[in-house]
From TrEMBL:
Belongs to the glycosyl hydrolase 3 family. Residues 1-28 form the signal peptide. Residues 106-417 form the Glycoside hydrolase family 3 N-terminal domain. It holds the Pfam family Glyco_hydro_3. Gene3D superfamilies: Glycoside hydrolase family 3 C-terminal domain, Glycoside hydrolase, family 3, N-terminal domain. Residues 26-58 are annotated as: Disordered. This is beta-N-acetylhexosaminidase.
Length: 577
């Protein structure tokens, strides 16, 4: 599942082809015919088997599509969120939220009424840069999530398309965007994996984490982030694997292979590259000013590496790539999604919109936005702000001709093919959650990430130690304190050698001038202003990262990471090459 190329593209022809595209100025006419869909996760080769076996996912999808009504087809391309932590029993407040969103009381009712192809589980934490479009939360702990997903699948099983399992997704990126945090193995951030620089460690960690997602009933993860951190983007930040396209590409490939080996679809996001703008698409429409050639060489290698690793999905971003389709968000750009992503880059899988409840997508009414997104080349409409309006708009456009039936059938066939592919592997049991083996995979990745950017390599701090931090990090301080104590370092409430922690959103004002050691638990840029004689970076505040930091501070581990982004005035590491 995880090792088949999704793209029959060759780098040597991409720039020429893209140049020809820009010169031709193709309009992206929604009436243009669309090709017969290829199976998800396969390359478009010179020949296709004439009689694939009956169990082939693409054949099953095509056969099922032929039996579906217009209403069933439209429902399969919608993947909204819902209010409530149970499929069938919700609070009065959640029922009111679902009524406003979809005219129903419960998530199960929403699935039944609109014949949905999927549902996204949502939630946020204080340091989450995506919290602006998370209207509610319906994840709490693994047992609750498992019961919720079981109920959702029961409801979907009654649909005409019920033989294909419901898509249940979430944004489990690890780091600042992590929906399920309690009772599961929590990996360090993507930037930490970039600092570790070992795709095999990344793959092993994501395989462990993916097995736990599958056990809870989640079969598509909106991860990994394939954006290259070319700017100091606060919304992407440590969600990216780093600033070097080639190194980030290797990490993305590892994450894809790990996830998909255990039956969870990986989603590369946010095409054509959110890290190439410092602006936040949760607030406005970021502009990518780079040339098409610069995007190809600087933004797209992690996407193509993920495709080569077999990624089943790509998420389109609300991004204005001026060199390719100026003024049009990529989510609605036929040039970017159909001509470039599918044509030049050769992606054959499922294209999913970013949240349609974000400002760049809400310039149109939900129905019109859904039609525009599907005509541009998306196959799944994510998080529409009004399910009924999106559904009615798609159905009216299908019957009126502005949404070609071939385009809708192509999208649904891709979605169903992916569903049947995912159903081929049995999910792990709930007993596998947070096991020692899974924690060991996370620990190994976190340990390899710790970086020393100033000071001696691997020198133990002089005890006793006092752990301080910027505001609101009591839990992280407690985790590090426990890890230091376990490593044999005495920790005092005050008066010791100060180890100061800074994290997401912190700046120069959050540093401690008297700290002997300053540790960056998110992007390391803030360390450029730190005066401490020793500067370290973990890029993450996870338990695994704090345990790894404690081992370095105790002199029991060598900090072998290299900063995957440049910090002014500091080397990538002082530990040599």
């Amino acid at each position: 599942m995880g090792g088949v190329s999704n793209r029959p593209w060759r780098a040597s022809v991409a720039v020429a082809a893209l140049t020809a595209l820009l010169v031709s100025g193709c309009s992206g006419d929604p009436e243009r015919p669309t090709p017969t869909p290829s199976p998800v996760g396969t390359s478009a080769g010179p020949s296709v088997p004439a009689a694939p076996p009956a169990s082939d996912p693409a054949s099953r999808a095509s056969a099922l599509v032929a039996t579906l009504s217009d209403e069933d087809l439209v429902g399969q391309v919608l993947m909204p969120y819902a209010y409530g932590d149970s499929a069938t029993k919700v609070s009065a407040g959640s029922a009111a939220g679902n009524q406003a969103l979809a005219g129903v009381d419960t998530p199960a009712d929403m699935i039944a009424k609109y014949r949905l192809g999927g549902l996204i589980l949502v939630g946020f934490s204080a340091d989450d840069p995506t919290k602006g479009n998370q209207e509610t939360t319906n994840v709490d702990n693994p047992k609750q999530v498992h019961e919720l997903t079981t109920g959702l699948r029961t409801a979907a099983g009654r649909l005409a398309a019920g033989s294909a399992p419901l898509l249940i997704g979430t944004d489990q990126e690890y780091g600042v965007v992590t929906r399920v945090t309690d009772g599961v193995t929590v990996l360090p951030s993507a930037l930490a994996a970039g600092a570790a620089g070992d795709p095999k460690l990344t793959e092993a960690a994501w395989r462990a984490a993916g097995a736990e997602l599958a056990a809870m009933g989640i079969n598509i993860d909106f991860a990994p982030v394939a954006d290259v951190l070319a700017t100091r983007s606060a919304v992407i930040g440590s969600r990216s694997y780093g600033a070097d396209p080639k190194q980030a590409a290797a990490q993305v490939g590892g994450a894809v292979r790990g996830l998909q080996a255990v039956g969870v679809a990986a989603t590369l996001k946010h095409f054509p590259g959110h890290g190439h703008s410092a602006d936040d698409s949760h607030q406005d429409l970021p502009v990518l000013t780079q040339s098409a050639a610069a995007l190809q060489s600087g933004a797209w290698p992690p996407f193509t590496a993920g495709m080569d690793a077999g990624a089943m999905a790509v998420m389109s971003g609300h991004l204005d790539a001026r060199a390719i389709d100026p003024g049009t968000p990529a989510t609605f750009s036929h040039k970017l999604l159909t001509d470039v992503l599918r044509g030049q880059l050769g992606f054959k899988g499922v294209v999913i919109t970013d949240g349609m409840n974000m400002p760049p997508a809400m310039r149109w009414a939900p129905g019109e936005a859904a039609v525009r997104a599907l005509n541009a080349g998306n196959d799944l409409i994510l998080m529409t702000p009004n399910v009924g309006q999106a559904y009615d708009g798609l159905l009216a456009a299908l019957r009126g001709g502005s949404l070609p039936r071939t385009r809708l059938v192509e999208a649904v066939t891709r979605v169903l093919t992916m569903k049947f592919q995912l159903a081929a592997l049995p999910a792990a049991q709930m007993s596998t959650l947070n096991t020692p083996a899974h924690r060991a995979a996370a620990d190994a990745l976190a340990a390899a990430a710790v970086t020393v950017l100033r000071g001696a390599c691997g020198k133990a701090v002089r005890g006793p130690v006092t752990v301080t931090s910027s505001g609101g990090r009591d839990g992280t301080r407690a985790t590090l304190t426990a890890a230091l104590t376990a490593a044999g370092v005495q920790v005092k409430p005050s008066g010791g050698t100060i180890v100061h922690l800074v994290g997401y959103g912190d700046g120069a004002k959050d540093l401690s001038p008297g700290a002997a050691v300053t540790v960056a638990m998110d992007t390391p840029y803030v360390l450029a202003d730190a005066k401490s004689p020793t500067l370290l970076a973990t890029y993450s505040s996870s338990r695994a990262s704090m345990t790894a930091l404690a081992a370095v501070l105790a002199g029991k581990a060598r900090p072998g990471g290299r900063s995957p982004v440049a910090v002014p005035g500091l080397p990538a590491t002082t530990c040599g090459t």
